[in-house]
Amino acid sequence: MEILINVVRIISLFLILIGVFFFFAATVGILRMPDQYTRGHTGGKADSPGFLFSMVGIWLYWVTINFNQSLKILLIVVFMLIVNPIVIHSILRYCFRTNQRPMEGTKYISEEKNK
Length: 115
Known about the structure:
This protein is an all-alpha fold.
């Protein structure tokens, strides 16, 4: 039984490290992108798997310690996977509705409709 617990903890460590990699990639993407639309897209796309891998790793670790507490972590994972894309969409929709322009040289939807 002790060997199984150690294997699960090693797997959880690798999942957490994969999640940290995605968070790091999101941070680099947010810093390098030119405008709020591409930054939001980069952050939203990379944060979701980063959060998923990290929290599943934490959940696996907690399963070996206390199963009842690990159920709370699963609820957090489900909640965040639903809420994260909605929040990113709402923020970028607010930017669009307040006429914040994207960087020069990118296509803008309302400009294409006027042509």
